[in-house]
Predict the structure.
Amino acid sequence: MPAARGRERGFGLVELMISMLIGLVIIAALVTLFVNTSGNNRELARANSMIENGRFAIKVLEDDLAHAGYWGAYVPVFDDQNSIAVPAPDTERPTAVPNPCLAYSTGNWNTAYVTSLIGVPVQAYDDDSAAGLATCVTGALDVIDNHQAGTDVLVVRHVDRTHVCTVVGEVGCDADDAGNLYMQPGLCDSDTTPYVFGTSGYTVMHKMNCTAQAERPLPGVGGLAFLGFPLHPPGKPSTSRAEHLYQVQVPMLFLQGTRDEFARLELITQVCDRLGPSATLHLIDDGDHSFKVPKRAGRTPEQVMAALADRIAEFGSSLSAQ
């Protein structure tokens, strides 16, 4: 009698091939999904980068345009709302649009040209081949980096908001660089010109008006207000910078932060005590040299600035009442 055969189990060859085919289709679909997702992520990252770069470019333009025509302590006569004089042509008001590419020299930059530079702080060109502009773009000067042919050109003029270091070890200032162009407004009553242009940095600078006030009283100055008087460099306590203040004959208001690294509290207090009744010290608790306070102080920067403005207004009112 023949033996009984056992029942066969498992996949057949055809079934195995079908399952492999289905697996390959699934893998292909997953790979396609991954590639598409990666491509979308790259496009999204590229778009975000373009948006951020655009925001940064707009911020740079906004900052430059907001400060166009800022010349430090110098206010042109035609822009001085306290002046009733008629600005003289070529010396106090511009009479022509200046060539933005004219290289600096005492011969090129005459009085009329400098007056035009100051009086026309913004110039826009929709064609880089405009008269006088080609030398900036492709000429020997080549002052416009990475210029794209056929694009607009915007010229904005103002002085930097930083100053040249005058004391060894001073921070928050620029080192004197003979390759830079510097402008210093005249702050002394003995100055024969309202400002000075030059490439020699601090050597073209005039004295601070508090120093001039110490040497000879300035006409119309009834008091001096100092917002963060820089008594000494950080980490180098000294009162030598205040020596000229003892010859000042007008009231002085010192607005100082108690954490100011440029004026240790005990030293600025000592200076004000020595100055006597002519000096008033107003302290901003927890404020640094820029009057920034920590969050724990419970005051916003706007509140701090408002308090400073109110104190200066009170000081000015007290001078008017004298």
